[in-house]
Structure formats: C-alpha cells, structure tokens
C-alpha cells in the first residue's frame, strides 16, 4: 500500500545535486546565483511560503496544489514560483527539512536515553508531537506488502533491521528511484532509527518481528491532521500509547 501520494518522483531530476538546491532556495534564488542578500520583505515572504507549505502538505499531503500554498501564505502564486521554480523543488525542500529534524530527534534519543525502550519511545513521542511524520519524503513512507513468491530483497530499500525475508502480509520499505543518487537525508534517518530498533530488540523490549518500516509507519499514522489543535494533540497521544503497547515485547 502507499501511505502518501506525491509528485516526488521528478524532484531529483529538477534538483540535480541536493546541496545545490538547498543552497539555491536558502538564498531565495532557483539558480543559486546569489549576488545580494534577500530584501527584508522577500525574506519574510519566503518564510511565509515555507510555513504555509508545511501546513498545507501536512494537512493534505504532497499532492496539494501550489495555489493552496500561496493562499495559505497570503502571497500570489507567482511569488511562490519565483522562490521555487516547480512544486517538486518545494516538496523536496520541505521533506529534507523534516527528515533532518527527525534524524536529529532520533540521535538525541539515542544519545540521551540509557534504556533502549525509553530511547525508542522518546523518539516516537517527540516525532509524533512535531507532526514531522506527515511530511517525510515518499521514499521513506512508501510501504509495500510482501506477498508469497515476491521478488524479495532486490526490490527493497536496504535499511538496518529490516526483515530480510518478509512473509506474506508483512510490511517492507520499497525504493523509489530518484535518478539523481540523492536520498534527501533518508538514508541517515533510516540508519539511526535502525540503531534504536536494534537496541530495543536486543534488550528484549521490542517485539522481534518489528522492523524499521513498522516504526516509521507508526510515526506517519500516529500524527492525524485534525482542525482543532487540542483535539489533534490528544488524539495523537492516545493513538501513540496504543501503538507503543503493540510494539512492546511481552513475557511469554
């Protein structure tokens, strides 16, 4: 199944070289040829567009049109396109920022929590509360269901602690070729989450059949988008409590 539809597939082709794109949009120029700093009003518009994009994509997914982003930012759609020459470039910017945020949250939990289960649950609670799960890049959130006789690992994204031989109905990460060799930081995220998973599993606190794909699916599904902020926070906390109970290993 796919947990999120997106126009991501062409982003890397447009943004050949992720660093160049990040530098370009940071300077407010699509071509990266910065000559002078952004004017105060131009910088303000850029910040409004980025904030609006996070909100709109978080609520509606990456399939939401640029017009919705412009409307939320209270700027003309032309202003959005002056900063980001295509929707794919904007999607890439937002997804990379959220991936970096989640990676840092995972590293913090890994470094500051001595107990393996506390580290994993801290990461999950922090990431769900931030809402970043709704904005992860599609190559992280595209999840396939393995069937009997499927092609197997050759078609899968190779990440730590992923089940190497999925059985029927088990979740697995599936790759989405970008064509540019740049994963937008997804590899680093998968690596550090893999460490959290391995520690909790080795300590006997995580069910042995839980994989990195399952943990990321929890992050994505435990952050519902509701119109009322208080209701959203309460729903997320309650849902995450239930999901954490499902992940935890129980004595036989």
From TrEMBL:
Has the keyword DNA-binding been applied to this entry?
Answer: yes
Record's Pfam families?
A: TetR_C_43 (PF21597), TetR_N (PF00440)
Q: Which residues bind DNA?
A: 65-84
| Claim: Transmembrane is one of the keywords in the record | no
Entry's Gene Ontology molecular function annotations: DNA-binding transcription factor activity; transcription cis-regulatory region binding
The annotated region (Disordered) lies at 148-185
The HTH tetR-type domain, residue ranges: 43-102
PROSITE patterns in the record, alphabetically? HTH_TETR_2 (PS50977)
Name assigned to this protein: TetR family transcriptional regulator
The organism named in the record is: Streptomyces cellostaticus
